[in-house]
Amino acid sequence: xxxxxxxxxxxxxxxxxxxxxxxxxxxxxxxxxxxxxxxxxxxxxxxxxxxxxxxxxxxxxxxxxxxxxxxxxxxxxxxxxxxxxxxxxxxxxxxxxxxxxxxxxxxxxxxxxxxxxxxxxxxxxxxxxxxxxxxxxxxxxxxxxxxxxxxxxxxxxxxxxxxxxxxxxxxxxxxxxxxxxxxxxxxxxxxxxxxxxxxxxxxxxxxxxxxxxxxxxxxxxxxxxxxxxxxxxxxxxxxxxxxxxxxxxxxxxxxxxxxxxxxxxxxxxxxxxxxxxxxxxxxxxxxxxxxxxxxxxxxxxxxxxxxxxxxxxxxxxxxxxxxxxxxxxxxxxxxxxxxxxxxxxxxxxxxxxxxxxxxxxxxxxxxxxxxxxxxxxxxxxxxxxxxxxxxxxxxxx
Length: 397
Description:
Elements: H1 2-26, E1 44-50, H2 57-65, E2 74-81, H3 87-92, E3 100-104, H4 110-117, E4 125-130, E5 134-135, H5 139-144, E6 152-162, H6 168-190, E7 201-204, H7 217-227, E8 231-243, H8 248-268, H9 275-278, H10 281-293, H11 295-311, H12 315-332, H13 343-366, H14 384-388
Parallel strand pairs: 1-2, 1-4, 2-3, 6-8
Antiparallel strand pairs: 4-7, 5-8, 6-7
Helix pairs in contact: 1-6, 1-10, 1-11, 8-13, 11-12, 12-13
């Protein structure tokens, strides 16, 4: 039981302490410099995946057409996955401004739509995005400048979350995202960022490969690109904005889906965990993603083993068990109306929500359940872009 406890604790230390420290130390010894692309830029196709996005698609298209990039080099494409809420009608209204609509019928999911319609894209660079992700005007230029380096295969932009002052979900996601952003910056400086972001991800068109319906494109494609000898860059200056889900229930469902599909992506591209094939990237992928997805199981192992040892009379493990119970007790206060607004409550609560979602995502995958289609978790408010121009913590991210 002691061995089990310290193995579980060691895994947590590796994920949340040792790996970030290793990145911080490594960046002092090695820092990669990407070559900057010329000002004219390559031809580019902006691919907007949409399912029933009538409330946001007009704003998204106006945002896309206002980007600071030569119009003759920018193709805007919307892939509608069987939308039935009027999304397609809104997109067709932009046809005279060059927006292309492809409709997938019946509904098969985002990855199926990309596999079917990406071959029709004209751009040398493909930029994947979602209907509710609003770009800063210079975001495209920031992305494509890195492709001047022939070893760069993909570039991930910086997704920022719009915060509502009374939203514990937004605040919690903001804290998590600052930590995650720091990790990505360090990974990019010493080698390759581990994954992309479906809200703002650019790849070389010739590196696109057909996807399975249940693939998560912003993870499978980067893994395959790295396995082919390229690297990925994270650009914190290439910014888009998106709202979090309205509540923790919506956030929970989103996390379950992400972990389920992301772990499936790693299983689909196992060579990305082979250090003889991809070098240090294999260790980055393991400690940044894979080990983190299994954190909830280590947490359960710590609790169970410390309880067993405490019952044997060990004062040390009684104290460690009491600390864990106290932490989870505070987290449970998140179910008390109003208590979640307190930072001391919502941070533990969010930590537990995220890890419970990770556990469910992993277990569903192990039981053979893969998520290919889903209903997007959209807040009721639709003016993300206007609110996003002054996010409350944008300077910190």
